[in-house]
Amino acid sequence: xxxxxxxxxxxxxxxxxxxxxxxxxxxxxxxxxxxxxxxxxxxxxxxxxxxxxxxxxxxxxxxxxxxxxxxxxxxxxxxxxxxxxxxxxxxxxxxxxxxxxxxxxxxxxxx
Length: 111
What we know:
Elements: E1 2-3, E2 6-7, H1 14-21, E3 23-26, H2 27-35, E4 39-42, H3 48-56, H4 60-68, E5 72-74, H5 77-85, E6 89-95, E7 98-103
Parallel strand pairs: 4-7
Antiparallel strand pairs: 1-2, 3-6, 4-5, 6-7
Helix pairs in contact: 1-3
């Protein structure tokens, strides 16, 4: 249960908790999540933690607008193959049932 941007039973604000759970990871480790259809692409110009917070808070109007603009989407098979070929490094955070991923242009090997 969420209350006032805190997670019940947790002393950290939601945004801070999400920030602490965000990590760099390579695509090969995300393959099982992609196979389940739970990987979501977040455009690099967006704030990954902010998007995760919006999804956790069920801000469906803002998320729908970003999906419509192509800023958030499911990972396509073509994207997945490109990421697989170079074991693309990226940022990721879990917001159940999704794994949000974002390419980081500062990581060597990113496209």
